[in-house]
Design goal:
Elements lengths: L3 H16 L1 H10 L5 H13 L5 H5 L3 H17 L7 H6 L1 H16 L3
Length: 111
């Protein structure tokens, strides 16, 4: 089982990936057989963001939890419309906002 510190670090790492075009490109170059655009979705929605679990809830302050929840809602509403290739993703207006919002959370939360 993960600790609160590990959960926070994992959230930080994925938000960092979500917010950085260069990290996304590096990920694709280091894993050419992986569809990074889809993998990023899976990292957030399938593996990381678990707001219903008590440990996830306890890992963040109320403000941090609320910020993550707002980000998740925005991302969730747009995930089905996002392109499935990294190049197309980087040209997508919604993705640019998602990247900006992820960066905003990184800058707001004291990790």
């Amino acid at each position: 089982m993960l600790s609160k510190t590990q959960i926070r670090k994992s959230v930080h790492n994925v938000l960092s990936l979500l917010s950085s075009k260069q990290q996304q490109i590096d990920f694709q170059q280091n894993s050419p057989s992986v569809n990074v655009a889809l993998e990023i979705l899976c990292l957030w929605f399938d593996e990381l963001y678990n707001p219903g679990t008590p440990l996830f809830q306890k890992s963040f302050t109320k403000l941090e939890f609320d910020l993550l929840q707002e980000f998740n809602q925005y991302y969730n509403l747009r995930k089905g419309k996002l392109p499935e290739s990294l190049n197309d993703l980087h040209d997508d207006a919604d993705w640019k906002i998602i990247m900006h919002e992820a960066k905003s959370i990184l800058d707001t939360i004291i990790w």
